[in-house]
Design goal:
Largest sheet: none
Shape: elongated
Structural class: mainly alpha
Length: 102
């Protein structure tokens, strides 16, 4: 499964990236507001994609790169949709109730 001539540096980089991912996931869980949580989600998804690319280099299998590419595209679309939703919700604000207008 693993390439025998994979450099130990790649293994070390995967471990470092996963540790940084754990640190970045703190923003998702304990961010002060929704924007920090969204940035944390974006950071975590980027780090996971980096780890997948390095794993692809270690195993010398290109389909992991395809998986990483699809995840990057889905992550971008997800962050974009959530950000647009939050901006639109902020722009509209509170709607007046029917009894408030009487």
């Amino acid at each position: 499964m693993f390439a025998f001539e994979a450099h130990p540096f790649l293994y070390t980089m995967i471990i470092i990236i996963l540790l940084i991912t754990v640190g970045s996931s703190f923003l998702v869980v304990a961010g002060h507001d929704k924007w920090e949580r969204l940035i944390g989600f974006s950071l975590v998804s980027a780090k996971i994609n980096m780890a997948i690319v390095l794993f692809s280099l270690i195993t010398e299998r290109s389909f992991y790169l395809d998986i990483a590419l699809v995840l990057i595209i889905l992550s971008y679309i997800g962050v974009k949709v959530i950000a647009d939703f939050m901006i639109e919700k902020k722009r509209k604000g509170k709607r007046p109730h029917a009894r408030d207008t009487e």
